[in-house]
From TrEMBL:
PANTHER family: BLR6548 PROTEIN (PTHR47235). InterPro entries: Leu-bd (IPR028081), Peripla_BP_I (IPR028082). Residues 52-404 form the Leucine-binding protein domain. Pfam families: Peripla_BP_6. Belongs to the leucine-binding protein family. This is ABC transporter substrate-binding protein. Keywords: Signal. SUPFAM superfamilies: Periplasmic binding protein-like I.
Length: 426
């Protein structure tokens, strides 16, 4: 999913949008409805016309989190496919403008302003990272620009009520932490856990969720170490954590540091904990440099299909994805899960825009907060988009997986954290 670190990349695609002036709405179940006459009048139409729609994405195409720069390739391939082979939906083509913030919040603000004020985008689609999104959501709110399906699982995107224009997509970090805690309650009910976490809202959110989830159990935190994204490595932290002799190691990192922590764990012959790596660092691109022989038995969680998993070899969406990646992103490795992530989130945007009552910024804002069991074919069976007023978390279901051989293997059942743990509250 890595794009070259250039100022911007424009791609075109066609996307479903309500037909005609404020045309037929397609709900999650596919039932069309129409907006009342005049309902769309006075709403914002910057960045959208009868024939076009312009989106802006902000990714770390360079810097310590540049592995995530792969995501736009999957998005681009999806949009190109829809444009070329479905002859557009609603007659509107999407121009997707990608900007590089280097995983630096001040740069993210600069790029958000450029996208909104100079590029005149309809919406910010996929600002990546908790620090960057935190730095930009006040601006999006002030300008009343949808900031849709941000690529970060911070729980505040769904809990906060002061920023109605911003919403996440992937499972939030607190829900993910709950899944790991539930797993340990069954497998290692008295475990001592060592934790490495990124010292920002991302790392603290997942760690805090884990601590809350183990409260009242015999599971304890034996040691915790933080790191900064500017650190050259996490080797010192890993040495300190190894000294705890904890039975479990919870690895809350972004890809660069995830690889370093996995490698450090593999090299330490005197410490052999159960290694749980958070989802955002579970990509094959993180594990492969460490050596597959060194990451056997590592546990993580998933919510979308893994292109390397033979379970999906005959899956219609996976076959379509691989064919269209080859066709519209030649030379790009379709087996890299970040590409699959991009395809899945682009498909989710497609569904949300199709369900908008009005082809306006307000229409999109309201649509993403009224998704009722919307199925996205690249998500795991049983995982759907589901939101409502007061519930701004599109995806809250996950399944555990273990690394075996050269790929992840799913185990257990899909866990709907809403049902298992109750709704997330502030």
């Amino acid at each position: 999913m890595r794009l070259s670190a250039i100022g911007r990349t424009a791609v075109t695609a066609t996307l479903v949008i309500a037909a005609a002036a404020c045309g037929g709405r397609e709900s999650g179940g596919g039932t069309p409805s129409t907006a009342a006459a005049g309902e769309c009048q006075g709403q914002q139409t910057t960045g959208i016309t009868d024939t076009s729609i312009k989106l802006g994405g902000i990714y770390p195409l360079s810097g310590p989190a540049s592995a995530y720069g792969d995501i736009p390739k999957g998005i681009k391939a999806y949009f190109d496919y829809v444009n070329a082979e479905q002859n557009g939906i609603g007659g509107r083509k999407v121009e997707f403008v990608v900007r590089d913030d280097g995983y630096q919040p001040p740069k993210a603000v600069e790029e958000a302003r450029r996208l909104v004020e100079q590029e005149q985008v309809f919406a910010l689609f996929q600002t990546l990272g908790t620090p960057s999104t935190t730095a930009t959501w006040d601006y999006a709110t002030q300008r009343k620009v949808p900031q849709i399906f941000v690529a970060t699982g911070a729980s505040k995107w769904g809990l906060d009520t002061a920023h109605p224009w911003t919403i996440g997509w992937q499972p939030n970090y607190v829900s993910e932490a709950r899944v790991y805690a539930q797993y340990l309650k069954t497998e290692k009910p008295a475990a001592k856990v060592a934790v490495l976490y990124q010292n920002d809202d991302f790392g603290k959110d997942l760690l805090g969720g884990f601590k809350n989830a183990i409260a009242g159990t015999e599971i304890t935190i034996a040691a915790e170490q933080s790191y900064e994204v500017s650190d050259p490595s996490v080797d010192p932290q890993m040495r300190n954590l190894a000294g705890s002799k904890a039975e479990v190691f919870l690895n809350i990192t972004t890809p660069k540091f995830g690889s370093q922590a996995l490698a450090a764990d593999a090299k330490n012959t005197t410490w052999n904990p159960l290694h749980i790596v958070n989802n955002v660092s579970s990509s094959i691109t993180v594990l492969k440099p460490v050596g597959f022989e060194n990451v056997q038995g590592v546990v993580s969680s998933a919510y979308y299909k893994d292109p390397l998993d033979p379970t999906w070899a005959d899956d219609a969406e996976m076959k379509l994805y691989k064919q269209k990646m080859q066709q519209y992103a030649p030379g790009v490795d379709a087996d890299v899960p970040y590409h699959t992530f991009g395809w899945a989130v682009a498909s989710s945007f497609h569904k949300a825009m199709a369900a908008a009552k009005c082809p306006t910024r307000e229409g999109l804002r309201d649509s993403v907060r009224d998704l009722k069991g919307v199925q996205v074919d690249m998500l795991l069976p049983g995982v759907v988009l589901d939101t409502a007023q007061g519930d701004g978390f599109p995806i809250e279901s996950m399944q555990l997986m273990e690394f075996k051989g050269e790929r992840w293997e799913l185990f257990g059942e899909v866990i709907d954290t809403r049902k298992e743990f109750g709704p997330l509250t502030g």
